[in-house]
Amino acid sequence: MPMGGDAKGGEHQIKTPDKANATYTAGLLFPLRDDDADYPALVVGNYIFGAGALSSRLGDRIRQKEGLSYGVSSGLSVSSQDKRAGLTISAICNPQNIGRVQKCAQEELERLLRDGVTAEELENAKQGYLQAVKVGRASDQGLAGTLTNLRHLGRTMAFEAEVEKKIASLTVEQVNAALRKYIDPKKLVIVTAGDFETKVVEGGGV
User: Fold this and answer.
1) What would the pLDDT profile of 138-173 be if each residue is shown by its tens digit?
2) Which helix (H) or strand (E) holds 26?
3) Are strands 189-194 and 10-15 parallel, antiparallel or unpaired?
4) Which residues make beta-bridge pairs with 92?
5) H or E element, residue 86
């Protein structure tokens, strides 16, 4: 998928007869490395949008408020070697709800970019993300994995410490500017999969 200014979004549907659940997946690519200045802001912006373990924009809207999805989240993948990054949105739902899930996800992304994150969301996200990172390093397996990746890249724990320091000092303006710089809803490639032709059974849930 191209990452330049000419990258275009699109929609694709995959039919999976007799499958009980449907899936919604959307994503876009953009040029960014994990040592770029905007990386910490995008990490926190994604955490607020859909990666937060306890609360997120997508989870609050699609799962809690609308009751449309069994699980919904966003993910941020950023290369350490190439300028290649991606934002993904994924959800599992009843096939009859796929259209509403897609609409809500689009609305929440547009709202995030239009209105931006709040100071309260930012502080909660900083604390939640940094705490999750510390917990991940608390196990021998987690720490070994981190050290192995750093060594492969010629880095030390000083790199991790610097990223965490930048995250702790982020401002609302920095997060909003980074999100608006890299994330364009019009460039989302959306893929839905499910049995969309099965008749709706009365009383069917999410």
Assistant:
1) 888 888 988 898 888 899 999 999 999 999 999 999
2) strand 22-30
3) parallel
4) 23, 71
5) strand 85-93
